Hints:
alpha/beta; Rossmann fold; two-stranded parallel ribbon; 11 helices
Amino acid sequence: MRIAVTGSSGLIGSALVRSLLADGHQVVRLVRHRSATGPHPDGSVGVGWNPALGEVDRAGLAGTEAVVHLAGAGVGDRRWTTRYKQEIRDSRVFGTRALATALAAAEKPPAVLVSGSAVGFYGQTGDRLIDETAPAGDDFLARVCVDWEGAARPAAEAGIRVVHPRTGLVLSAAGGAGGRLFPLFRLGLGGRLGSGRQYWSFISLADQVAALRFLIDVEELRGPVNLTAPSPATNEELTAAMGKVLGRPTPFPVPEAVLRLALGEMAVEVVGSHRVVPEKLLKAGFQFAHPDVLSAVRAAL
């Protein structure tokens, strides 16, 4: 199968590309730098695109049967200034619109576009269990997710099956939030954040990759699909699991006031609560390798 991937150098994208290549699939990487176009040492091929300008190498995408769109500025990479918030939104909306428009115009469009989203779509949900039927929230990330998903509409209108994986906290020591947390815990400096009672809907990197591939293959799945483990954990439970697996104490709670001072508006996501469950995945028969927080933390290491 010929599969195109955006965001292929990120934590999730690079793991997905490795998985696809290992199983003999042809992988096309959408890349922004001219030097990265053409054959790659791993056997994939780079084709150009410029999401900010709406440019996509349509000829390079010819023959692709599926597209997985993961590109976007990192939510936790920098403090949320007004300028960076705009970059978070624009990198998702402009890139998705450019890609969806190009695919819709293809002589032979791919069968499926798996176009990224996040559990931030639901806003802060407290301790309520949330599945894919829940409405959108009204905070910054919720509004971004609404616009992000909406930008894929040209592909859906062209008859392409569009799936939006609403991803939770991906646990991995190799990058993302886990890549920043695990070193602190190894040094014995870890602890709950804020009250610790907020729910963090997590997923292991291995399950994230497997779920993305499941979305490509299972034709009944379309629209929003939550990519989270079936048992959301509180921050306190995640903290305890990391301490147990690493054999380190977790004695240093970080007060909410300190988080707000250090992180600014982004602290809302750290101390906020998303108790999200993957109802569609479970009904479709997806099997999680790491369904609970302890197994997911062990897998991350």
